[in-house]
Amino acid sequence: MNRFKIVLGYFLGFIGAIVLTGLVSLLIVKVTVLDSSYVKRKLDNNNYYEKVSGEIKEKMENYMVSSGLPETILDDLYSNEEIREDVNLFIDSIYRGKSITTNIDKVRDRLNDNINNYINDHDVKVTSKSYIESFVNNMVKFYEQEINFYGMVNGYIGYVPKIESYVNMGLVVLLILFVILLVSLLLLKVKYIGSVISASGLIILFIRIIFNEKIDYHNILVISDNFSNVVKLFVNNVNYLALILSIFLILLGIGINLAFSLQSMPKKG
């Protein structure tokens, strides 16, 4: 192999490692962050819905302390299943870019019914209907905030489908480019194709190490402990997936190099 082909082979190998790194990175994003089913499973595994129910109840109870109303008005306002349904509907709205209808109005109607029943059963004299309306609105707001992640992602509804389409396009382009580079390396008869794959694994592993050193995501606090735990869970899972894939690529590359070495060994006899 002449010098030009050697230099070209190393150059294509370097580009191939970068392209494969990008391909794997986009694949990780696609199967985690951009997969609504994956997100729902992780929320379920973290008992997110039950914890949301507890946080809503706690906030409502704290808010109504000075209202003079009994805690019985909170009875049967919502169920864990309705919270699960509403959270999942909101997640679907993010990933599909469409508006949704939740159980928020049902919670409002039930709370109004409970308050009116208490007032009628105990002959309570209401001096300000506007206070009752404000009270109900604020109570329902606690439910709505927990359901839609405190509105943090409202501004991004409609963008996720676009991002997903770009990621899918990027996967196709990078895959085609990697195949072309791989074929080119085979035509050049280079024997370090496995090293290209291992190099990609090392790059991913290096990026992961730098990320863990620079960002202390274990102590991150976003809005509430419950929401923060979910964010940590997602980052930790992506981090773990990156580790597994990087090790797999490194070992795969070593295996391919060994196969090429064994193939090129002179046969005895």
Broad structural category? mainly alpha
Tell me the number of helical segments per DSSP (H or I, 4 or more residues long). Answer: 9
Can you give the helix content as a percent range? over 70%
User: What is the typical, i.e. mean, pLDDT?
Assistant: 85
Number of domains: 2
Tell me, what's the shape? elongated
The percent range for strand residues is under 5%
| Gyration radius, in Å | 28 Å
Number of strands: 0
Largest sheet: none
Order of helices and strands: HHHHHHHHH
Poorly predicted regions are none
- What quaternary form is this? single chain
Distance between the termini: 28 Å
How would you describe this structure to a colleague?
This protein has 269 residues and is an all-alpha fold. The chain folds into two domains: 3-31 and 158-264, no CATH class; 49-156, no CATH class. It is 74% helix and 0% strand. Helix 1 packs antiparallel against helix 9 and helix 3 runs antiparallel to helix 6.
Topology diagram in text:
Layout: H1 3-31, H2 36-45, H3 48-63, H4 80-96, H5 104-121, H6 129-147, H7 159-187, H8 193-214, H9 225-264
Helix pairs in contact: 1-7, 1-8, 1-9, 3-4, 3-6, 5-6, 8-9
